[in-house]
TrEMBL record:
Gene3D superfamilies: ACT-like. Chain A, domain 2 (3.30.70.1150). Transmembrane segments: none annotated. Pfam families: TM1266-like. Coiled coil: none annotated. InterPro entries: Acetolactate_synth/TF_NikR_C, ACT-like_dom_sf, FeFe-hyd_TM1266. This is Transcription factor NikR nickel binding C-terminal domain-containing protein. It comes from Acetonema longum DSM 6540. Signal peptide: none annotated.
Length: 94
């Protein structure tokens, strides 16, 4: 499977109304999240989240697409051009 490194930038407007859904979606993709940073800006009713991710373009696209469908959420992503191949480990029957 081909995997890519990237960053996802998320701006959440009025986070008090939608942050639970944003966090639930992000945690559903925790297997591909390497790092996360969140900056609250309550004086502007905005929350900013950056995610460092490693996954297939389909996985990353699924996450950003679902986040972008949430009301008040803006998402942008940037992926590296370099692809890495992950070897799947054989299953051991023990």
């Amino acid at each position: 499977m081909s995997r890519r490194l990237g960053v996802i930038g998320i701006v959440v407007h009025n986070p008090q109304t939608i942050s639970d859904k944003v966090n639930l979606l992000i945690s559903g993709y925790s297997h591909m999240i390497i790092g996360r940073m969140g900056i609250p800006r309550p004086e502007e009713s905005v929350g900013i989240i950056s995610l460092i991710v490693e996954g297939s373009t389909d996985e990353i696209g699924a996450l950003t697409g679902k986040l972008g469908l949430l009301p008040g959420v803006t998402v942008k992503s940037a992926l590296t051009g370099k692809k890495s191949i992950v070897k799947e480990e054989p299953l051991n029957d023990q």
